[in-house]
Design goal:
six-stranded mixed sheet; alpha/beta; 26 helices; seven-stranded mixed sheet; globular
Length: about 650
């Protein structure tokens, strides 16, 4: 363990040293989020000796939970267990946990001691050092906070080796920012020389990198602990970053990713002013490229970007303040003009948000994505927001051949909600692709429905064919795979299931079958207002499916990997992993086996008649999940596959990437 200062220690496998710093406290609260708790609470329990005075509290994971509503129960817990001014909080986690734990310590009984144990790269080089602790206000990031130095900061780089790549790249955004805070080129040279070692999480390179970044930040903090002057330079990139995070409603982008974009924004401003040249700017961009970090600012419409930047806490006297840089890396606080902001936005106008809406048989889904338009090619950069509403638009369409008024009203309610979201993201109708599938195309009153939606929401619905749906499904899924190997993509919808075979070169063949989770449920299991999953009914359903699937016989001539998309398959993962809250990142590219599906079916059959909650199953899917699961199991058996992969990139992504025709 290396002692950087009286309160900061860095090393590898150094958690045992926590015991040296917890002796003089009557109670200790280990504060973390649910994700970190699952990974490290057991390790902490084994590490700390005085177990009788240790308490644990977890909150939900994510920037959107960094607010007063989340931390009020923490105060309740501490009061209930008689925490005193001689008690201690240990913040175990990333930047959000460090900020929240520090704020709780600063405010409980007007201040108690706390120790930072940062587990992410972002937290190790930034959030845990410097004594700025805060929570967010609904209108602004870090608006409620205090300056309170941690009693100790224990930085163990071994934590970094379990970080998802996305989180590591987020931390690298802050690390690369530090290169612009000092005039000495040696740290930049070290980073460039050790790119591969850093990417491979080699301990010595990580220790060196984290130590240098911590010393840079500490240098600014020591000379200006309350941010009255020079410390403000640490906010390089943060004015645009905070505006972007707020624009994204603190989802879909990490703080470090936002800072990366914000740094390039500030450099673009400095370039506009003639303070740096194009070589300086391009070298900066290349630093991010070598770590595969997307640092290009995204276009935010004029009325939105100015409003968001006006809320930044660095501002005063109604001026928008950011950090400027010169060719020799001299830093200064500068006032941004409206014209300068709009010039940068115009330069990046091909990086923007686009949305797609899938009006299905059982559900309506919304996807908001950041894309880049390169000539006529659209590149998906990140998923910003997802939403889903169970609307049962296709209720009884099989029998009646028309959409019920009640189903239309449920769907309209969902679409109006989605339209509000689109307005919040400033996404225009021309940048929204809205399409309807089998329930709408099979109904006799589809034109009435389409016209009513347009009249009440201004959304233009494309009623697409099964072939078009298969095409956009494949386009979305194939964007996630680099291999040229064949993939067979299937999408079990409410009314139909699409099968599309192809590879990176394109689609070989596709077919849409009229088998779906709602259709099979209504055809075989619904009776007098309740569902009957008797052995006889399941056998009849399997027999019908087997006959339908024979239409896929020509697919058997190909070798392929099986890929499933949409609600039926993603629910299998969330149930298997017993997700309290749906996590798209944990579902995307997961593998499921035939045995997993069989176990889930047994679980559904056992619990649903008893109306028992099943962890990971949206209650609104209860009445169709068994039918969808039976279809899924039959597909695996037909293709003689023991497993398949799940993709969260599906027709919503495909619609954004290129519409409905090849």
């Amino acid at each position: 363990m290396k002692k950087i200062s009286n309160d900061i220690y860095i090393g590898s496998e150094i958690l045992n040293f926590l015991n040296e710093f917890t002796i003089n406290f009557d109670k200790i609260l280990i504060f973390s989020n649910e994700t970190i708790a699952d990974l490290y609470f057991d390790k902490i329990k084994k590490t700390l000796v005085e177990k009788d005075k240790i308490f644990y509290f977890t909150v939900k994971d994510g920037e959107k939970y960094k607010n007063i509503e989340t931390i009020l129960p923490v105060y309740d817990f501490m009061l209930e267990h008689n925490f005193s001014r001689k008690s201690l909080i240990i913040s175990l986690g990333g930047g959000v946990v460090c900020d929240m734990g520090g704020y709780i310590a600063a405010s409980y009984m007007r201040g108690i001691e706390f120790i930072q144990v940062p587990t992410s790269l972002l937290a190790q080089v930034d959030a845990s050092v410097g004594g700025k602790v805060a929570i967010n206000h609904p209108r602004c990031k870090n608006m409620i906070g205090a300056f309170k130095q941690a009693y100790k900061v224990i930085i163990d780089v071994e934590f970094l080796k379990t970080l998802p790549l996305k989180e590591f790249k987020s931390g690298m955004g802050e690390v690369l920012k530090h290169l612009f805070l000092i005039k000495d080129k040696s740290y930049t040279d070290f980073i460039i020389k050790n790119v591969e070692k850093i990417k491979n999480y080699e301990s010595e390179a990580l220790l060196n990198m984290v130590e240098q970044s911590v010393l840079i930040k500490k240098g600014y903090v020591d000379i200006d602990p309350l941010e009255k002057a020079e410390r403000a330079f640490l906010n390089l990139g943060h004015t645009y970053a905070h505006a972007l995070e707020s624009f994204y409603n603190y989802e879909g982008i990490s703080h470090g990713e936002a800072v990366s974009k914000g740094l390039i924004f500030d450099l673009e401003i400095s370039y506009i002013r003639g303070n740096i040249d194009i070589v300086f700017l391009e070298k900066a961009k290349n630093l991010f490229k070598i770590f595969n970090i997307d640092a290009e600012p995204i276009y935010i419409p004029e009325n939105k970007i100015i409003k968001l930047m006006n809320k930044d806490k660095k501002n005063s006297f109604n001026k928008i303040i950011t950090i400027g840089i010169s060719q020799d890396k001299s830093l200064s606080k500068i006032e941004l003009t409206r014209d300068e902001i709009l010039k940068v936005m115009d330069k990046y106008k091909n990086n923007y948000l686009k949305a797609s809406i899938d009006i299905g048989t059982n559900s309506c889904r919304l996807l908001v994505a950041e894309i880049k338009k390169d000539n006529e090619r659209i590149i998906l950069k990140r998923i910003v927001h997802r939403d889903l509403e169970i609307v049962k638009l296709g209720e009884d369409v099989n029998k009646n051949k028309y959409l019920k008024d009640s189903a239309i009203e449920r769907t309209l309610k969902a679409l109006k909600k989605f339209k509000e979201t689109l307005d919040e993201f400033s996404i225009s109708n021309k940048d929204t692709v809205c399409f309807a599938t089998s329930a709408t195309r099979d109904s006799s009153n589809r034109n009435y429905f389409i016209e009513k939606v347009f009249k009440e929401t201004a959304l233009e619905i494309n009623c697409i064919t099964g072939k078009q749906e298969a095409y956009i499904n494949f386009k979305g899924v194939s964007s996630a795979f680099e291999s040229n190997r064949n993939i067979l993509v299937f999408d079990i919808g409410g009314g139909s299931t699409e099968f599309t075979l192809g590879n990176k070169q394109g689609i070989e063949k596709s077919i849409s079958l009229d088998i779906g989770s709602v259709r099979i449920s209504e055809k075989f299991f619904s009776k007098n207002g309740y569902n009957d999953y008797s052995i006889e009914n399941i056998a009849r359903a399997n027999e019908w499916l087997s006959l339908e699937l024979k239409k896929l016989s020509t697919f058997l001539d190909y070798d392929f990997d099986l890929i499933g998309v949409a609600g039926t398959v993603s629910t299998q993962v969330s149930v298997k992993k017993e997700m309290e809250e749906y996590d798209s990142d944990k579902i995307h590219l997961s593998y499921l086996t035939k045995s997993d599906i069989e176990q889930n079916i047994k679980l559904f059959l056992k619990n649903i008649p008893l109306n028992l909650d099943i962890k990971g199953l949206d209650s609104k899917r209860r009445d169709v999940i068994i039918g969808g699961s039976i279809i899924l199991k039959t597909i695996l058996e037909y293709f003689n596959k023991d497993k398949f992969q799940v993709s969260e990139l599906d027709n919503l992504v495909g619609a954004i990437l290129g519409g409905f025709n090849d």
